[in-house]
Amino acid sequence: MQGVSKRFRLPHEQYSTLKQRVLHPRKSRTFSELRALEDISFDIAPGEFFGIVGRNGSGKSTLLKCLAGIYGVDGGRIAVNGRLSPFIELGVGFHPELSARDNVAINAIMLGLTRKQALERFDEIIAYAGLEEFVDLKLKNYSSGMTVRLGFAVAIQVDADVLLVDEVLAVGDASFQQKCFDQFDKMKQEGRTIVFVTHDMGAVRRFCDRAMLIERGEMIDLGDPESVSAKYEEVNFGVVDEDDELGERTGLPRVKILGSWCERDGQRDVTTVAQGEPCSACMEVEFLDPIVDPIFAITFRNDVRHTIYVARSDSAGPMGEFAAGQRSTVRFSFPNWLAESTYKLTPAVITGDMRVTLDHRIDAVTLRVEAKRFTGGVTDLPTEVEVGDS
After folding, report:
1. Nearest partner of 58 among 214, 166, 221, 164, judged by Cα
2. What is the DSSP string of 72-140?
3. Nearest alpha carbon to residue 369 among 298, 281, 245
4. Which residues contact 266 (CB under 8 A, 6 or more apart)?
5. Strand-strand pairing, 267-268 and 307-312
6. How far apart are the C-alpha atoms of 322 and 326, rounded to whole Å?
């Protein structure tokens, strides 16, 4: 992709009915111009997992639709080597009055499979979506999650060289999201070229070989996932950049969080844990200046942004001295009795007097907790119940 630009004309007044057009036939129509993309250039190597991140309205989906050929471009050029398959709007082309059985065949053929291939892969598609009991039910009676699961199950059957994926990991329940992660791991191992649009920085760090950040239609960063994720947090949340002059201006030691993740049974970068399973929240920290007794902290917020769990290292006592250039991994291990929800992890390093945050990564990791039952509480602590005579 070289120098790609895309603009949209937005009418100042829109006619929604034929009557309005008849009543005002000579009324002048004026337009304003929206610059959705401006001089975007990048190359993606064969077999690379490439992430595109940015805030809502930044131009990510427009860029993906230009790559897919859905939108034409106003400037620049796009070249794609190999067969391309867009996973942009899963389930487009499904007919609500037809059953899953009929829709699978139609959608698979629309995505490039032959009728024979669609029939051969039908059982695998339905099993992957977990819809064996609903295969003859009309799609109008499906929930939105069931429809998207079916769409994704069909889409991954396409034998494409380049895949365009737009926020697929946000669909379905926790178990199906884990299937999406497993599928991406499989695609990486197969050497497929994948372009992945997401807001999830944990997914970017886990899957992507490189990433780019787009803001207001312009590319403002391109590089390794860690640096692009940090830049995204700076743009999205106003976080002070690691190379900022904060330490020089205040005399405070400079500290940099290099990465963060969740662990389970020694497995790094887990995205789903069962309630009651031991879990660890981790961060890797680099000390650019000497520091004595910093405080490390983690915060988990649920899907409605309530702070559910906070842990600080000072509860275990002073942390000691750290030399300039030293790197350390900080691990918070805890019995996971969080209620079923999706949580965002924010790691932080704070001065010993708790007055200044030296570095933090807002919503750096996404963790889904699964439970066998829902109680309505924010935690489900193990509780013994005893009933006796009064």
Report:
1. 214
2. --SEEE----S-EEEESSTTTT--TTSBHHHHHHHHHHHTT--HHHHHHTHHHHHHHHT-GGGTTSBGG
3. 281
4. none
5. unpaired
6. 7
d(C-alpha 189, C-alpha 348), whole Å: 34
What pLDDT does 247 receive? Answer: 46
DSSP 373: S
Alpha-carbon gap, residue 66 to 360, rounded angstroms: 35
Q: List the domains of the chain with CATH numbers.
A: 2-13+30-226 (3.40.50.300), 242-370 (2.70.50.60)
DSSP-assigned letter for residue 363: T
| Structure token digits, residue 388 | 């006796």
Contacts with 6 (C-beta within 8 Å, 6 or more apart), sequence order: 35, 36, 37, 59, 62, 66, 71, 73, 74, 217
User: What does the pLDDT read at residue 74?
Assistant: 92
At residue 390 the predicted structure's pLDDT band, cuts being 50, 70 and 90, is confident
Q: Alpha-carbon distance 361 to 155, whole Å?
A: 34
Q: What is the largest CA-CA distance in the chain?
A: 88
Q: What is the pLDDT of residues 282-309, one digit of tens each?
A: 999 999 999 999 999 999 988 767 788 9
State how far the alpha carbon of 97 is from the alpha carbons of 103, 122, 146, in Å. 9, 19, 15
Residue 246 has pLDDT above 60, yes or no: no
The pair phi, psi for residue 182, each rounded to 5°, is: -60, -35
